[in-house]
Every structure is written in C-alpha cells, then in structure tokens.
Amino acid sequence: MGKVRTRKVKRLAKEVLELYRERVSEDFEKNKQLVWEVFVSGISKKLANRVAGYLTTLTKLQAKKEAELKVESAAAQADATAEKPK
C-alpha cells in the first residue's frame, strides 16, 4: 500500500510547486528550507516535513516520467531512421 497524504498536504505542496517550480528539487532538505521560507506564518514542523516530502516525491516522479519519455522518443527516432530506405 502507498502512503496516505491529506488534502491539506497535497494542496500546500501543489501551491509551492506552482509558485516556486524552479527552486523545488529532489533533495528533501532543500525542499524543507523552501517550505519554511514560503510558509513563514506559522506552519507546524510535522506539516512542513510532510509537504517537503511530498514535493520531493512529486519531483522524483516527474523526473522519472521525463526520462522514460526521452528513452521512448530516442527509440522511436531510431526506428524511424532504420525504416527509411536508402
């Protein structure tokens, strides 16, 4: 079974991702610092860690999808060049 995350964690993480996409990384500690900078107005430590963890997970999933697409496009391109008659 997967991990369960509340709507609040997902909403806050998506909010941070939309506003600071270029600063979100695959490193949990960097994401945690970013969450603390964004939500200065008093977010609990536990909630901040959960949001940072979810950001890290989303970023890793996105990188994995991009890598798969790159491999698929390279394979399709190789097939297209191999099928061309010379």
What overall geometry do the principal axes of the alpha carbons give? Answer: elongated
The end-to-end span amounts to 52 Å
Write down the Rg: 18 Å
- Provide the CATH top-level class: Mainly Alpha
* The CATH homologous superfamily: Ribosomal protein S17
Unreliable sequence segments: none
SS-based class: mainly alpha
**Structural domain tally:** 1
List the total number of helices: 3
Biggest beta sheet summary: none
Strand content: under 5%
Q: Could you say what the CATH topology is called?
A: Diphtheria Toxin Repressor, domain 2
Q: Write the element-wise H/E pattern from the N-terminal end onward.
A: HHH
Number of strands: 0
Task: Describe it.
The protein is mainly alpha-helical and 86 residues long. The chain has a single domain (7-83), classed as Ribosomal protein S17 (Diphtheria Toxin Repressor, domain 2). It is built from three helices and no strands. Helix 1 packs across helix 3 (45-83) and helix 2 (28-38) crosses helix 3 (45-83). It is elongated and about 65 Å long.
